[in-house]
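I'll show a typical protein example:
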Amino acid sequence: MKKHRAGSGIIPLLILVWLLIPLIVTIIYSLFQNWTGIIPRGFSLKAYAEIFSDPAFLAALGRTVLICNIPILITILLILLALFVTELFFPGLERVVQIICMIPYTIQGVILSVSILSMYVANKTFLGSCLVMLIGAYCIIILPYIYQGIRNGMRAVNMPVLIEAAETLGASRIYAYFRIIVPNIISSVIVSSLLAVGIIFGDYVLVRNLDGSSFQNIQIYLYQAMKSDSMKSSAVFVVIMAVTFTISAIVLWIQGRQGKHSEKAAK
């Protein structure tokens, strides 16, 4: 039994090491200037000092973090409201909503950006704004991931039964939904949001086609760095990974603390 447990633990460890090799090599490459020999020489933090002293990099990083939050919040709110209506009032439309939310899986970024431009670029209202079009495009591409995560969470908590129990105690449906159901599926919402953060952080096609160089996100900055300095571009990539990891760690830490407080309150 012990040998079986040890073997089952080694396999995930090997997979983890295999997945981390590209990141580790990239980190090493960004820290050494001379790669003519087998062993790299010339340890230097010049690339990191250069990007962190560059206002364009800090602005691009800030724009990317900001543009991550807005589409995610909009999409979560829309999905929560749509599932509230379909689950409680129109159960027959659940399949239709699911199909609509799954459609973005099949849409390529280039096709989506060209379609949005052809429809809204001549619009004289706020819908014709490049930033608004970009936010809308991000809402579309993260829609399947947010929907699936929230939908799975609702299935796990048996939403109709909880809503019915709350109604017998005098609570309205909308109150029970946002005060009972949503807090119970917050872990599913967080996991879906983190997945959406990774998707938006890695986007280049949509922001390049919709906004061009007027809204430089971190991927456009990385692309420009790759054309000038490979060591600098490696440092940018490492920072991107560090930022996404930090965001994920902070969110999961907050979730863990909230879970502990909830357990103490229940006791």
User: Anything to note?
Assistant: DSSP finds twelve helices and two strands in the chain.
